[in-house]
Design a protein that fits this description.
By secondary structure, the protein is mainly alpha-helical. It contains 6 helices and no strands. The chain is about 75% helix and about 0% strand.
């Protein structure tokens, strides 16, 4: 067995995102450069937008003033959905990496995938209402970025 095949098998067995990315169909040759219309990326935009709206609602309602809110069922569900979103962002990164296209978006999606759990943990770890509001605001900003980087018109390579 060659080293390349062994490495591929190792990656497929160790990271489920690689297997999910490999299962995606390749882009059509005449497909537009933007990926925003592809199902996976459209799903990321929808999910991220919904989560951002939820965080903005918490900010408006003052949920950050109540530490017990972040141990309740609504935030627990939110954490689960945010984790799913992070996995989808990583899948999008791997798809773009496999295609060898759109270097900036590829890198940004990976960064967002890694940042979502960090921002959620910052909300949970904030000890004062002011810290929780800042953490929620930063989480909302990240979720907004997730929407905007996918829906922005592709830019030419510099």
């Amino acid at each position: 067995m060659s080293c390349g095949v062994a490495l591929t098998l190792s990656l497929l067995l160790s990271d489920p995102n690689v297997a999910m990315a490999a299962a995606q169909p390749p882009a059509a040759a005449d497909a537009p450069v933007s990926v925003a219309g592809e199902p996976l990326f459209a799903d990321i935009v929808t999910r991220s937008g919904m989560l951002r709206t939820e965080v903005q609602g918490w900010l408006a309602a003052g949920a950050g003033d109540q530490a017990e809110f972040f141990t309740g069922p609504d935030f627990s569900r939110f954490k689960s959905q945010a984790s799913e979103l992070a996995a989808l962002d990583m899948q999008g990164h791997l798809i773009l990496k496999e295609r060898g296209t759109d270097g900036d978006l590829k890198c940004i999606l990976r960064g967002i995938s890694e940042d979502i759990p960090v921002k959620v943990a910052a909300v949970e770890g904030a000890s004062t209402p002011a810290e929780r509001r800042v953490a929620l605001d930063e989480l909302a900003y990240l979720l907004n970025d997730n929407v905007e980087v996918i829906t922005a018109p592709p830019q030419p390579e510099v």
